[in-house]
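Backbone-to-sequence.
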């Protein structure tokens, strides 16, 4: 799990099922989700990955939601609230329409 180069520190490289996790990809993945791209592009990619996750595992997300004490995190994550996602899908919005709206929101933060 850890690679040690002669000139560098230990670097964690996730493998297996963890490589598909949006949060792991945010920290260790390739751009645009991982480090190396503009913040608004990373946020848009994170929204897209989380919407994929909600689309696949909404029932789990609804049961596992926890509160956050950081107001900015709450504001940035609000578009990904499982109840809101469920409502938007119920109202007929497609996964792509929701992802496009989240991407537009992310670009406003430039």
């Amino acid at each position: 799990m850890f690679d040690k180069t002669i000139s560098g520190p230990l670097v964690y490289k996730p493998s297996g099922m963890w490589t598909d996790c949006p949060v792991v990809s945010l920290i260790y993945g390739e751009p645009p989700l991982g480090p190396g791209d503009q913040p608004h592009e990373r946020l848009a990619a994170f929204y897209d990955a989380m919407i994929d996750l909600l689309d696949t595992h909404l029932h789990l997300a609804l049961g596992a939601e926890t509160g956050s004490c950081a107001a900015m995190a709450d504001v940035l994550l609000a578009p990904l609230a499982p109840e809101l996602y469920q409502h938007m899908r119920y109202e007929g919005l497609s996964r792509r329409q929701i992802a496009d709206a989240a991407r537009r929101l992310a670009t406003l933060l430039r």
